[in-house]
Request: fold
Amino acid sequence: MKRVIVSLLAAFLCCGADWTTVKTPSPGPTQSIGFYSAGCLQGAQALPLDGPGYEAIRISRNRYWGQPMTLQFIQTLSEKVHAQGQAPLYIGDVGQPRGGPSPIGHASHQNGLDADIWYERQPGPRRPPAERENPRLRSLVIEDQTLDDQVFNAQHVALIKTTAEMPHLDRMFVNRWIKARLCQITTGDRSWLHKVVPWYGHDDHFHIRLYCPPGNPQCKPQADYPHDDGCGAALDWWLKQPPTIFPPDEELAKNYKPPKLPPACQTVLNAP
Ligand SMILES: [Zn+2]
Reply:
């Protein structure tokens, strides 16, 4: 209920909120337009809610739309992880039916190339989609102060490494304490660590970000980042920061400033 009120408030206050209420994708070929945190998606496709090795969660948010490349990435990763003997992955938000900004929850996920994947899954058999709205999923980190060794295990390492080595991945975001541990324990080939980038939160799920696909000339790539394993000075900076405390949704909605989108996004939004 709280979320509904905040969304209504945001819809009233702010121009960007139509993106959150439009229920269907726009027609036309799939095109990622603009940047991950200032863009939209024409011709989005829906991730099937269940597949081999994964289950989409929080279906009521209607954020399971993306680029075919993103959906394929999720499906291939899930099959790989399943083949390793791991439990099905929980897939959280991909994007809204036309991408675009959403005042609560994300700055990115706007052009169909971002997705959230959870580290943990509720034990037991598959549940129907309606019973996957509010799964209780554990964090791998204790209050952003240290890794939780009661939870963190080798399966998480395998999951992150498998993801980092997939084609089309630009980068993936994990909590700083997870990155720090990976830096510490990885022997042999460390090249995959490069794509595992620390970010705020991301202690109960990680975030994948794919490159702009070929044939999407309006998609704006993200700047490159250092080519080493990211375990040196860059990580030191993260580890010196105070623990992150996220403000409540109401405060986020109040302070929300919509990004400036490329003009082509208005056409996507207005399409029937
Ligand atoms: Zn995300």
